[in-house]
Amino acid sequence: MATSATLSRTSAFFREVIADTPTDPHLEACLQCGTCGGSCPSGPDMDHTPRTLFAMIAAGMREPVLRSNTPWYCVSCYACVERCPQDIHITDVMYTLKRLAIKAGYASQSSAARAPGFSQTFIDHVENYGRSFELGLITRYYLRHRPLDALKVAPIGMGLLKRRRLDLSPRPIRQLDQLKAILERAREIDNAKSA
Amino acid sequence: MRYGYYPGCSLERNASAYHTSLMAVAERLGVEFAEVDDWNCCGATEFIAVNRLRAYALASRNLALAADQARSTNGADPAQLVAPCSACFLNLSKVDRYLEDSPALAADVNAALAAGGLHYEAGSLRIRHLLDVIVNDVGYEQIAARVNSPLRGMRIAPYYGCLIVRPGFRERFDDPEYPTSLDKLMRVLGAQVVDFPLKTHCCGGHMTQISRDVALELIRRLLKNAADYQADMIVTLCPMCQLNLDAFQESVNEQFGTNYRIPILFFTQLMGLAFGLSPAAVGIGKEFIDARPALAKIGAAAEPAAPAPKRKPRRSDQGLPLPQMPEEEQP
């Protein structure tokens, strides 16, 4: 018999999600009220609403959760976090699920398969230059991940160029070596923990 | 007044109109924004999706640089770091807050920063959004005193977007569901502020690149809401919101058969115009949807802009009559 209205935290997957989220997201406090899905701008396009996803996490349904497009359709607007009566860090949980989906190799198979490619292309540019480089980001992202859609974005790209709203070459920061050393050390620390 | 300034990647080029107008307005108000030397990207919403510790270390390098710079220039004042971009503001405040909440995370981040000879003590900076500083530190009275070309007759929809008052990791200065500080600021400039129920709804963020249909629908709702209230323009405070509503407005028109022509400007551009600065001095002309027809209302446009091209209606009206929502016909 259930002794509480909140989620069970006994599944291994539930503990995995909590352990990989930066501060305690209070996920076990979820009442399954559905305020999150009701507040979500992309909720109707998600495979599962956040509420459903959290019940699935508690039930240990690791693979279906990590194959869901839901985390990738999260727009990071924090509307759900603001309204959650239990103060659950929903956006942070979505970030955790994205990382776990990439690690498990499921991300490229969800219906939002292009999202990880976009994130990775963005990150590559920041790691190489220290700052975002939009022209490189859109050209490489479309050529590598969505060549057929490149024509659709071309007019907007041209419009940005015409209005001098895109740099033609990246603007690397001065102390790029320092940034790279910091990021490399962070990678080592992360690897040592997950080993 | 002197603040540390973190412009963020967008303000370098894509939203350079925001930067240009801010600097012009700051000079009039006697506020100094000292750019953090050699800052890097805050990580946007992408970095954290792939690697947790690297994302926190990336943002923390900026905090360490800003705190060091504040110590070396004005040690007496509490160091304040101002971000004009909502996403930068959110990321920097969130990292600062989480480093304070989780000593384990702070230890890992500082171990990474040490590889670059840096260190950051959580909570040593006050991280604030530009709008907060403008309305609460400079204040409405000081701003009103500078207005010499009031924006009379201009109907403005004030658009806050998501991250400025939500979820309030640090320095929440307005209501998360229905903020009003930008409304008041626009009234002080002499404009007429329309009710804008969707003022904190999401512009779609990066979804234009992930799922175009999802993004265009979110943008359509905002444009329709502003058009329903007969706004002459939407005023924003975030480069992402400006880009999505402005550059993708034609795509929305194509997708939904609408004919929206609503200019999207930054609030600092409107401040500059009300202070008597020329449209060029506040970066007018960078927008996709020409702002000049709307600005002609207040006599701020030097030359009349060419009339907007009329779109051909999607369906011929010769066919069978189809039910149509009356408010969907014309913006």
Describe the protein.
The complex is a heterodimer of chains A (195) and B (331). By secondary structure, chain A is mainly alpha-helical. Chain A has 2 domains: 12-109, Fumarate Reductase Iron-sulfur Protein, Chain B, domain 2; 114-194, no CATH class. Helix content of chain A is 57%, strand content 0%. Chain A starts with 11 loop residues before the first helix and ends with a helix. With 331 residues, chain B is of the alpha/beta class. Chain B has 14 helices and 8 strands. Chain B has a 4-stranded parallel sheet with strand order 2-1-3-4, with helices on both faces. In chain B, strands 6-5-7-8 form a 4-stranded parallel sheet, with helices on both faces. In chain B, helix 2 packs across helix 13 (267-274), helix 4 packs across helix 5 and helix 4 packs across helix 6 (103-114). In chain B, 56% of the residues are buried. At the A-B interface, helix 6, helix 7, helix 8, helix 9 and helix 10 of A face helix 1, helix 3, helix 4, helix 5 and helix 6 of B.
Topology of helices and strands:
The complex is a heterodimer of chains A (195) and B (331).
Chain A: H1 12-19, H2 35-39, H3 50-58, H4 62-67, H5 70-73, H6 79-83, H7 90-104, H8 114-129, H9 134-145, H10 150-162, H11 176-194
Helix pairs in contact in A: 8-9
Chain B: E1 2-5, H1 9-12, H2 16-29, E2 32-35, H3 47-50, H4 52-73, E3 80-83, H5 86-101, H6 103-114, E4 126-129, H7 130-146, E5 155-158, H8 181-188, E6 192-193, H9 207-210, H10 212-228, E7 233-236, H11 239-247, H12 249-256, E8 264-266, H13 267-274, H14 292-295
Parallel strand pairs in B: 1-2, 1-3, 3-4, 5-6, 5-7, 7-8
Overall shape of chain A: it is globular
Q: How many H/I helical runs of chain B?
A: 14
Largest sheet of chain A: none
> What is the CATH class name of the largest domain in chain B?
Alpha Beta
User: What's the number of extended β-strand segments of chain A?
Assistant: 0
End-to-end span of chain B in angstroms? 43 Å
Low-confidence stretches of chain A: none
Continuous helix count of chain A: 11
Strand order of the largest sheet of chain B: 2-1-3-4
Give the termini distance of chain A in whole angstroms. Answer: 38 Å
What is the CA-atom radius of gyration of chain B, in angstroms?
21 Å
The percentage helix of chain B is 40-55%
The major beta sheet of chain B can be summarized as: 4 strands, parallel
Please tell me the total number of domains of chain B.
Answer: 2
* Count of the separate structural domains of chain A: 2
